[in-house]
Amino acid sequence: MLLPVNEAAPTARSVAASNGLDGLRQLTATIAALETSRTKLITELRRGPAASWAEIGAACGMTRQGAARRWSRPAHASSFGAAADSYRRGRPGYPRSVVEWLVPRQAKTVLDLGAGTGKLTRALADAGLTVTAVEPSRGMRGQLAAAVPGARVLAGSAEKIPLPSASVDAVVVGHAWHWFDPARAVPEVARVLVPGGTLALVWNDRDESEPWMATLGAIMHRQAAQVIDTSPEIGPPFGPPERMETRWRQSASRQEILDMVASRSYVISMPAGEREQLLGEVAELLDEHPDLRGRDEIDLPYVSRCTLVRLAGPHGA
């Protein structure tokens, strides 16, 4: 419930019962807790969606554009929990060559950050690495723990990693860096890495040089184009980036392709009618396209785009 304007100031004064720095600390902690609650409420409103960005902006004393800029990223990122099962079934894995590039040979302990349902976690564990997976969504963590029972699974985020300082040799991020706040995530990743440790990012993009995949992309992005920077600059305290791209294919059933589309954040957050229409168009493409008609298994072409940066060693190496 919103406080009347004439009650807000007395409430703030009662929170800051002490003057000076103690009062400031109390106010700061309260504001942080309130902001967390506001973000959670906005996320719930958008999940329906029960409110437009214009309505949310007005309730927060902001413009529509200002509200969308501030909260669209956490609202979209949190939407995955509601579609964790579709995400697990539909999202692609990671080929062994990519995993070998992401993690240096000498690394033994690896953090999979923003691990989702464990697509990359499983590949890391299969490579014989000791893996900790950190994921904010409870639904995703449940899928991950069942899929990769040998991994340590923790609740947390890129901005607040629940690990001690200098505790892992490498950090990997599979198709998730674009959801993070780099200003907070970069120093937090640096904190948990040993000197000389590595941060590696990978995105699996659909290879739309194949005509039917280009048609699929056009259907998916007709209402909500998604542009992701897959070659981000990380910056200090990390060194210059190394880049790698590789093309590969993964076999999928018709239902797994529909799950892949359904698991996209912008599809999850669509009104139900629009979402069903989009999935219907994808189903029609799979049924009618001459390259796909009558096939039980379809090869999906992907491009893995990777970036690796290294934390300075004990002597600046």
Give a short summary of the structure.
By secondary structure, this protein is α/β, with parallel strands linked by helices. The protein folds into two domains: 5-79, no CATH class; 83-310, Vaccinia Virus protein VP39 (Rossmann fold, 3-Layer(aba) Sandwich). It is built from 13 helices and seven strands.
Task: Describe the overall structure.
- The protein is α/β, with parallel strands linked by helices.
- It folds into 2 domains: 5-79, no CATH class; 83-310, Vaccinia Virus protein VP39 (Rossmann fold).
- The chain has helices at 5-15, 20-47, 53-59, 64-78, 84-90, 96-102, 119-126, 138-147, 182-192, 211-220, 254-262, 265-268, 272-288; strands at residues 109-113, 130-134, 152-154, 168-174, 193-206, 242-253, 297-310.
- Strands 3-2-1-4-5-7-6 form a 7-stranded mixed sheet.
- The radius of gyration is 22 Å and the shape is globular.
